[in-house]
Amino acid sequence: MIHSKTLPMLALCAAASLAGCAAPSKSGHTYTTSEARRPMQVEIGVIQAIREVRLERSPQTGVGTAAGAVVGGVAGSNVGGGKGSIIGSVLGAVAGGVVGSHAEQSLSDRPALEITVRTDAGRTFAVVQEAGGESFAPGQRVRILTDPARGTTRVSQ
After folding, report:
1. Tens of pLDDT along 117-149?
2. DSSP letters spanning 5-73
3. Distance, CA of 57 to CA of 23 (rounded, Å)
4. pLDDT per residue over 1-12, tens digit each?
């Protein structure tokens, strides 16, 4: 049986877990407020190749591991009594931590594109950006926007 103090703790862990998964977008069509009104260098080029990749949050926050360990520990403590309850808590916390860590990683990974572009000036390079919002195809003419102060580049239609 779940104790009255346990339920609010589980809700808090779930909320913290979800908040830890939120991260700013890395897509080509999304800008942060600090990027607004900043001059960017613009080049024109042609897409040579596109490859689907995954963006991985690095480093992980550990929220998933911690939340999973708490939930697993609480669940495990309800197994048996005395020493059995202690052993159940420890095993539940370990198992919950592993599951929580995997959950955090799978929720924070995002689909992305590695876009290889050849500029009209003859320079070839690849840019990785989050997928979504714009569709790209080999042979398509695109704009390459570079923020020299931040060292960031994005590909846009």
Report:
1. 999 999 999 999 999 878 999 999 999 999 998
2. THHHHHHHHHHHHHHHH-----BTT---GGGTT---EEEEEEEEEEEEEEE--SS--SHHHHHHHHHHH
3. 8
4. 455 455 445 544
Quick one: which of 61, 44, 40 has its CA closest to 108?
61
> Model-level pTM?
0.54
- Quick check: 37 and 123 in contact, CB under 8 A? no
Residue with tokens 């490859």: 51
Please, what's the b/e burial string for 38-48 (b: 16 or more CB within 10 A of its CB; e: otherwise)? eebeeeebebe
